[in-house]
Automatic annotation (TrEMBL):
Protein name, per record: Glycine betaine ABC transport system, glycine betaine-binding protein OpuAC
First-listed, main subcellular location of the protein, grouped into a coarse class: membrane
GO biological process, any: choline transport
Pfam families given in the database record: OpuAC
SUPFAM superfamilies to which the protein is assigned, alphabetical: Periplasmic binding protein-like II
GO cellular component term of the entry, any: ATP-binding cassette (ABC) transporter complex
Subcellular location: Cell membrane
Entry-linked CDD domains: PBP2_OpuAC_like
Length: 290
């Protein structure tokens, strides 16, 4: 009888211990809130946001919701606390007005990419280095600048550059894919070409390129890309905020991620997960320290 009582007691202890452990695991899972990320349909923003989604879900056990919207809507929504973070804030120029308007309701978690800019881009082997030199070598470029969609901001800036510098060039409208295909064809044949370009972009990871100097600052200043968060995120989800503070990519890293997404038929989140697995040492360096 005493042996039977010991067995029953032992069984109860096992059940109780299992219940406690299971309960502990469940509570840990329940404590992981859903992270709400907003993004603009810009290539670098799509790439970085999908990469953070992969890290938060696969490495840290969070659920992630992603919402695409215009910058104005995103800044307003983060200031209202509807979204947790936005990883594609260009500062100090492009999104300056939004930051000024909502600065009391946002938290800047620092930059994740340094040296973002727009301008005229040529292969590194092209001999000139400044927009001011373009007219002297017009024949080498057939008097053409290869552009993208006519409504893009960089096209407006290039029309202004043609006027400000008195360039005797035609700006050819097209698309992003046509521009990169033209660039590839010219580089393959060691020919001169000028394209409207911006960084970050995968073409900088694939080819040796340079921006032409812009002494009149028609294309504006070099910017950094910041992660903006709602107030309270650091208290509500401190390890998420720490991840965002640690998250940084250089030209080569972001360019390779964007290139993989551009070249793939798979969804960006699938590609971002593959990139994360191929760059695990870098990704792990962003994770919060326990």
């Amino acid at each position: 009888m005493r042996r039977f009582t010991k067995i029953i007691t032992l069984m109860l202890l096992v059940v109780l211990l299992g219940t406690v452990l299971f309960s502990g695991c469940s509570n840990q899972t329940e404590e992981k809130d859903t992270v709400k990320l907003a993004y603009v349909n810009w290539a670098e923003g799509v790439a970085m946001t999908n990469l953070m989604k992969a890290v938060l879900e696969e490495k840290m056990g969070y659920e992630v919701e992603m919402t695409m919207a215009d910058p104005g809507v995103i800044f307003t929504s983060i200031a209202n606390g509807d979204y947790d973070a936005f990883l594609d804030a260009w500062l100090p120029v492009t999104h300056e007005s939004y930051l000024e308007k909502y600065k009391d309701d946002l938290v800047d978690l620092g930059y994740n990419f340094e040296g973002a800019r727009i301008g005229l881009v040529v292969p590194e082997y092209v001999e000139i280095n400044s927009i001011e030199e373009l007219n002297s070598v017009k024949d080498k470029f057939n008097g053409e600048i290869i552009g993208i969609d006519s409504g893009a901001g960089i096209m407006n800036a290039t029309n202004k550059a043609i006027e400000e510098y008195g360039l005797d060039y035609d700006l050819l409208a097209g698309s992003g894919p046509v521009m990169t295909a033209s660039l590839k064809d010219a580089i393959d044949n060691n020919e001169n070409i000028i394209v409207t370009g911006w960084k970050p972009h995968w073409k900088f990871a694939r080819y040796d390129l340079k921006f032409l100097d812009d002494p009149k600052k028609v294309y504006g200043e070099v910017e950094n890309i910041h992660t903006m968060a709602r107030k309270g995120l650091e208290e509500d989800m401190p390890e998420v905020a720490e991840l965002f503070r640690n998250f940084k990519l250089n030209d080569q890293q972001l360019g390779s991620l964007m290139g993989m997404i551009a070249d793939s038929d798979e969804e960006p989140d699938v590609v971002a997960k593959k990139w994360m697995e191929e760059n695990e040492e870098l990704v792990n360096s962003w994770l919060p320290q326990e």
